[in-house]
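ARCHIVE CARD
CATEGORY: sequence design from structure
SOURCE FIELD: tokenized fold
FIELD CONTENT:
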């Protein structure tokens, strides 16, 4: 027997535990000084209670207890605080300012999130206050907590959901279209957003505003740009309050750490006003997030305005580990020292612009077009077309990381590369948390279901008799999603190449594979049964790099420019 902890769970040894403890104390002190009092919530909740809040931040671990109740390990603390305020504290006038340090537990959602399944969340909830001062207090406290932890060069991306909600409601577009737009915003998929906004469903001025909004970014001037974009359409909902909040944060000296960014629109159904996400250089995923969720407490029976944030202690530790040594505390004593060093936070931000931009470049059939696209966008691609066995080509200001196309999503999602190129098929298969920015148009191919020509009746008979068929593919996730939609039971066999061999040798009845010229299907006497999707190459970026590294936006514009 191997005595190992379950995947995603681990022991914390003393050196690290001491630093965590010290950091936790510093943050708790910081929250305490602002009048936030501690609370604790139970590890387990009845599943229905969590679901009543309308938003599950991540898939929870679930099990039945001996009384037959379906219980969940808390994936988040906010829902529990909402439940607590509307039940135990019902009738008490408030406002309440709560802080917590609690473990949360999350089932892995995809292969891409092979990471920890137990995290320590530190956060606050301010219940019963609303308006710009309360929002600024929440965002300001997040900044203070990150500074307290010694996180260098962090950025807080802030937006407000009212503007997009108003644009969607008044666009005259049907609910299904609005839902697709929201999905594109949630997934940070600018390519899908452009396609939707060009399809003529929404009135042109609204479509233009909806596609432009998440591209506006910057300081105070960005709020002005949003205003000019949406005020002719009568959609400035929440913008005045947002601007007031921004001014309060700028007055508090936070202008350098804050970036107005309307692409930060995840959990749209849940947030009702300001939203904030915290990013640090060198870290693939956000440190934490928060926002205003004025409607959530009503779901538990008592309506009160509310706002809060949480960040993960593990992410904060990782941010320090990837920061330059000047702003990285190495032990507990250094945490306090970092706190006292006002020059430290700037160092990592400076380091970001000094280090080369890392681009994942696919080898194989997309390689030549990728190099041509990057060169047309103005990058120095010298040596990239003939790298030999060298896997990283370093040119001034840029590192090209040569990857297998199916690996590009992992390199970018985990922050090993800032951005990259691969087929839409690879992105759909991996389902990574990245920002899809440009459809590069090359590498066009179609995903099809195919079977030996003339085998249709026998495959159908096979399915009728056995209730399942075998399908071979290199893309099990795309294939299983397709058959789920089709309502058909299949056994999927994952192969790594020459997929067409599977039905020819009797290993499987059908395949789901790429076709471009159709030559391979034709030469192997296979016929197309159905179309699954079409794919072209995409330029995409790490969510964190996209929001804090201006070079990604520049490269996006250059790639779009050269396409035009
Ligand atoms: N025959 C084709 N014509 C056009 N584009 C294709 C064709 N085959 C694949 N593609 C596109 O190019 C991408 C890369 O394909 P390629 O054959 O180079 O790598 P792969 O073998 O699929 O990936 P890996 O080496 O990572 O397993 C595919 O994901 C798809 O988007
Ligand atoms: O329609 P066509 O132009 O003939 O292209 C289709 C072929 O291209 C891809 O294979 P790839 O070249 O990537 O080799 P693989 O089978 O080893 O993955 C795909 O899997 C098909 O086999």
């Amino acid at each position: 027997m191997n005595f190992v902890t379950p995947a995603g769970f681990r022991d914390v040894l003393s050196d690290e535990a001491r630093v965590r403890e010290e950091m936790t104390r510093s943050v708790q002190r910081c929250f305490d000084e602002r009048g936030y009092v501690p609370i604790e919530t139970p590890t387990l909740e009845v599943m229905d209670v969590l679901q009543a809040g309308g938003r599950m931040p991540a898939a929870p671990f679930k099990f039945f207890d001996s009384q037959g109740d379906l219980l969940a390990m808390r994936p988040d603390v906010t829902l529990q605080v909402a439940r607590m305020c509307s039940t135990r504290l019902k009738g008490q006038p408030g406002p309440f300012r709560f802080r917590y340090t609690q473990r949360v537990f999350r089932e892995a959602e995809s292969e891409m999130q092979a990471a920890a399944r137990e995290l320590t969340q530190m956060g606050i909830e301010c219940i019963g206050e609303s308006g710009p001062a309360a929002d600024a207090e929440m965002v300001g406290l997040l900044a203070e907590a990150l500074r307290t932890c010694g996180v260098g060069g962090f950025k807080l991306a802030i937006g407000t959901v009212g503007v997009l909600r108003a644009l969607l409601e008044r666009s005259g577009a049907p609910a299904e279209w609005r839902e697709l737009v929201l999905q594109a915003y949630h997934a940070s998929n600018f390519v899908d957003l452009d396609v939707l906004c060009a399809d003529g469903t929404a009135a042109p001025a609204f479509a233009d505003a909806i596609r432009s909004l998440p591209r506006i970014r910057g300081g105070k001037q960005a709020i002005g740009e949003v205003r000019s974009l949406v005020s002719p359409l009568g959609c400035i909902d929440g913008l005045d309050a947002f601007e007031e909040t921004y001014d309060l944060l700028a007055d508090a000296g936070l202008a350098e750490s804050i970036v107005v960014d309307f692409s930060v629109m995840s959990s749209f159904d849940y947030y009702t006003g300001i939203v904030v996400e915290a990013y640090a250089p060198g870290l693939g995923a956000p440190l934490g997030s928060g926002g205003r969720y004025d409607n959530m407490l009503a779901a538990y029976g008592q309506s009160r305005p509310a706002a809060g944030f949480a960040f993960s202690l593990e992410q904060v530790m990782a941010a320090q580990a990837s920061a330059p040594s000047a702003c990285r505390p190495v032990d507990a004593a250094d945490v306090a020292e970092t706190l006292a060093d006002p020059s430290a936070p700037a160092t990592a931000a400076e380091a970001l612009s000094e280090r080369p931009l890392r681009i994942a470049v696919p080898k194989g059939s997309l390689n030549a077009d990728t190099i041509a696209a990057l060169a047309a966008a103005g990058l120095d691609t010298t040596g990239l077309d003939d790298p030999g066995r060298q896997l990283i080509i370093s040119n001034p200001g840029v590192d090209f990381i040569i990857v297998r196309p199916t690996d590009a999503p992992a390199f970018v999602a985990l922050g090993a590369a800032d951005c990259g190129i691969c087929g839409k098929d690879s992105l759909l298969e991996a389902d990574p948390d990245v920002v899809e920015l440009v459809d590069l148009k090359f590498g066009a191919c179609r995903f099809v279901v195919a079977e030996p020509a003339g085998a249709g009746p026998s495959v159908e008979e096979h399915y009728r008799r056995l209730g399942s068929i075998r399908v071979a593919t290199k893309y099990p996730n795309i294939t299983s999603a397709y058959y789920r939609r089709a309502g058909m039971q299949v056994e999927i066999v994952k192969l790594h190449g020459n997929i067409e061999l599977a039905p020819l040798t009797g290993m499987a009845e059908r395949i789901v594979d790429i076709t471009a010229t159709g030559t391979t299907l034709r030469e192997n006497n296979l016929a197309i049964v159905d179309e699954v999707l079409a794919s072209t190459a995409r330029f995409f970026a790490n969510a964190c790099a996209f929001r804090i590294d201006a070079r990604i936006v520049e490269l996006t514009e250059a790639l779009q420019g050269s396409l035009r």
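CARD ANNOTATION: The pocket of PRP (ligand 2) is lined by residues 497-500, 513-520 (CB under 6 Å). The mean pLDDT is 91.
SHELF: design records, drawer C
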